[in-house]
Automatic annotation (TrEMBL):
It comes from Coilia grayii. Signal peptide: none annotated. Pfam families: PH. This is PH domain-containing protein. Gene3D superfamilies: Pleckstrin-homology domain (PH domain)/Phosphotyrosine-binding domain (PTB) (2.30.29.30). InterPro entries: PH-like_dom_sf, PH_domain. Residues 117-216 form the PH domain.
Amino acid sequence: MGCCSVTQRHTGTDEVGPDEIELLEIAGTGVWSLAETRQSVRNGTGPGPPPPVRCPSVKHLIHEEPKPVERKISCHNIQVHQDTQMVWGWSKEDVHHRLYTQPIREWEGRAAHTYGDIIYSSLVTLHNTHTKAMGERYLVLFSFHLLILALDHSHHDFIYEGILPLSALEVRIISQDPSSPYMFEISGPMVDSKIFVCASAGDRKNWMDNIEDRRYKSLRQQLSPSHSALAYLLPCDETWKREELKRYLLRAPIWQWEGTSIQHMGLPVYLSLVHITNSQKQGPQERLLVLFQLDVLILSVDKQRVRVNYEGRLPRRSIQALERSALTGTLEFQLTGELMEPLYVFCTYPEDYQTWIFQLQQPDKEIHTMSNPPAPPLIPKKRRS
C-alpha cells in the first residue's frame, strides 16, 4: 500500500480531530475573538495511519517578524485603491494555489484544503471601530468558512489571524451612500464585530452575495461549525455539492493510494455515494464512486467525514453494468468485469442509478467489436493474346 496521492503540509486529522474549533477563543466576556492564543478541542480516537509529511511548524515567527503596518485614519478619509487588489503582483489563481500548497505563518488546525473550494477572495482594509486604526487584510471565502489573513509585505508572506464558520456570522452593508467607503460588517452572537472596507462597490457586492449564498447553504446542512468541508458536501445530493466535491478530491490527500496520482486521471465525469456488496454476501459498505474518462475510482470516507481512503479502481473498458432494479425493486445494478468478482451497487437516488447505467452499460462484445469484412476478390487483368 502506498501513502497518499497528494502530499500537503499537514492534514491535522490525527492531531486535532473533527471537533476542533479553530481560532475561536472563549474570552472572559463570553465572546469569541481572534486571539494570539487559540484554543482547540482534541479528539482522542487512538492511533491511526501515519499522517502525510508536513512542513515544520512556524509558530511564534510572528513575534520575530515585523507586524503588518496599521495607521490611524478617520473613517471619513478611508480609501482603498483599485491597484491594491493585486497582491505582490500575483494573480488570484497564484494566491489560491499558494494558500493550498504553502505553509501560512501562525497557521493552526486542519490544512487549508479541508475547507473546500475558495469561492472568493480579495484585499480589503480592516477598520477598528475602537482605535480607528486601519490595516490591510486578505479575506478568503471557503465553502463554509471565512479566513482572515494579515500581510507581511517585506517577506511576501501571509499571517493567519483566524477562520470563522459562516453559520455563526451575520453580514450587513454599513452605508449605501455612493460617497461613503464601500464597507460591510460581519458580526455574530459569539463573534466580535469587524468592519471591512472594499476597493469598489462591485467587490463589496461580491462579498455580500457570496457570503449570504454560502451561509444559507451551510445552515441547511445543520452541522457543527467545526466540521470539515467534506462533511458539508456529503451526501452529494445537489449539483453544487457534486461539483465542489470533484474539485475537493483533486487536491485532498487520499490515504493508502496506489498507482498513478488522481491528478493524472483527468477530470471527474460523475460521482455519487453508493453502497456496495460483493458475491461473498458481506454487508453493504458505503463507498464514493467516481467516474473518470478511463477508470472508475472507488473511495471510502471515515465516519467523521474528514479522511478519504483509496479502495481501488476499475478500467472502464473491462467492466459492465447490468440492471437489477426490475428483479429487486431497488436502485441496484451489478458491476461485472474481467478478473473481478461481481459487485452489487445500491444507489440512493434515481438520477445516480440512471447515470451509472448509461455510462457503464456496454453492448455485447460481439456487437461492439467490429470485425473487418473480407476483402473483395481481385478481378484478373485481361491480357492480349
